[in-house]
Amino acid sequence: MTQAAANDADRTYDVIVVGAGPVGENVADRTSAAGLSTVIVERELLGGECSFWACEPSKALLRPVIARAEARRVPGLRQAVAGPLDVAAVLAHRDEIVNHWHDEDQVGWLDSVAVDLIRGHGRLDGPRRVTVRTPDGGTVRLTARHAVAVCTGTTTALPDTPGLDSVRPWTNREVTSADHAPERLVIVGGGVVAVEMAAAWQGLGSQVTMLVRGDAGLLSKMEPFAGELVADALREAGVDIRYGASVASVFREGREVRLTLGDGTLLAADEILYATGRSPATRDVGLDTVGLTPGDWLPVDDTGRVTAVDGGWLYAAGDVNHRALLTHQGKYQARMIGDAIGARANGEPVDDAAWGAHVSTADHTAVPQVVFTDPEVASVGLTTREADGSGRRIEVVDYDIARVAGAHQYAQGYRGQARLLVDLDRGTVAGATFVGPGVAELLHSATVAVVGEVPIDRLWHAVPAFPTISEVWLRLLETYRDRHQPRRRPPAHT
Predict the structure, then answer these.
(1) N or C terminus of the chain: which is more exposed, having fewer CB within 10 Å?
(2) What dihedral do alpha carbons 222, 226, 227, 228 form, nearest 10°?
(3) Cα–Cα distance between 134 and 125 in angstroms, integer?
(4) Is the pTM of this model over 0.85?
(5) What pLDDT score was predicted for residue 291?
(6) Average pLDDT over residues 391-400
(7) Sheet (strand 256-261) strand order
(8) Which H or E run contains 88?
């Protein structure tokens, strides 16, 4: 791996990848594996948002909070975990998880897969061209023989609230890298980042207030019972959740943030986190030089090619194409896209049929997601709302996970819910949602069932071990069976 310097003014590669988060790294890995000379351009840390300011540090903050909550539900452990968490130790572990915000290990990985690196801000500069402004003020002009892949991800979408610029609000970056627990934290939003960070910082000693616009509840894109169970647990932990709340204006006075809500209510906090959605990080990547609008999402076909650009040379992978704003789904896309670029460059057939080797079909039908709160939420495939609008004949099957023997072993007073969506015409699982402690480990089995279109009749033969929470699969199938095959009353003894 060669790190290009400012005096490398003009260079040509088979593939240029802009953005070295997990998605860009996977595109580069697959194109290099296909024998294509590949360079990756990054202006910040290799590993991107997920490694340093999102997935990994947030889970490092959440894990001790969730582990303590689960331990308190186990008889014999409650008194052992009665005290507060060691916040300094939690933050120190978080720092180790993110390698103290250094990326040497990522650089070493690029070297191992023969991908070149240029540090600097890369911008498209016409078809198949990228210009990079390096940290020392130099300029490197790159030309791609075959493809350019934009993998720049997203940034926090901040609202146009009076006074916000002066407040220095937290985004996902500040909330996951903070060096202390603020005494009072206001969180604006009710999605995944909002609920996870509410759970983390309330558990680490902050008094958290959540301001949720509208009355759709928390996690509004998921099954309603998911947000309801999470809200119940957050309230029990001490979080103040306010629905129908909007921020009219904010200002900072000294170290204190003061908010005026839409109804005139006044609030004060030490920090305010905006978890109000994401915007594509495409405002300054040169989209205008290829006929696109800066700041827009980049719609793609199933092989990752940007549909609005002629010539089939521009690709977009991960959050930036707005298909599924999840690291694991972006990496999945990246593997398919990198292999598709390699196939096209090497004159090989492209397998672009559904579930083919070069398409990301799962983006449409089987996107798995875990929300790492207490309780956990795990889902894949359709929700009931999505199924209602899909035109498919769907039957909803619910089961209380607390009735499963494995849940009794897991925790006293277990609370959870499972939902299976059965496609009545295909006889397969179209979606699944699980809420409860420990349910994240149920998700991959559900994902395999959805992706593999495993017939319900065949799922009967996938026997869950006893006593585990996965026995809920059997109970869901029994519930479905009993609706369609009512039990017969035995004849009276004569």
Answers:
(1) C
(2) 140
(3) 15
(4) yes
(5) 97
(6) 96
(7) 247-253, 256-261, 266-269
(8) helix 87-97
Token pair of 246, please? 């909007």
At 51, the amino acid letter reads S
Q: Dihedral (C-alpha) 39, 44, 46, 51: value to the nearest 10 degrees?
A: -150
pLDDT single digits (tens) 142-170: 999 999 999 999 999 999 999 998 899 99
Location of structure tokens 């939902």: 419
348 CA to centre of own chain: 33
Per residue in 199-218, pLDDT (tens digit) is: 999 999 999 999 999 888 99
Contact 436, 373 (CB under 8 A): no
The distance between the two most distant Cα atoms of the chain, rounded to a whole number of Å, is 99
Residue ranges of the annotated binding site for NAD(+) are: 189-196, 277
Q: Between the CA atoms of 343, 347, 351 and 357, what dihedral angle is there, to the nearest 10 degrees?
A: -20
**What's the distance, Cα to Cα, between the start and end of the chain in Å?**
86
Q: Which residues contribute to the annotated binding site? A: 59, 122, 189-196, 277, 319
Domains located in the chain, CATH noted: 10-47+103-155+280-362 (3.50.50.60), 164-276 (3.50.50.60), 375-482 (3.30.390.30)
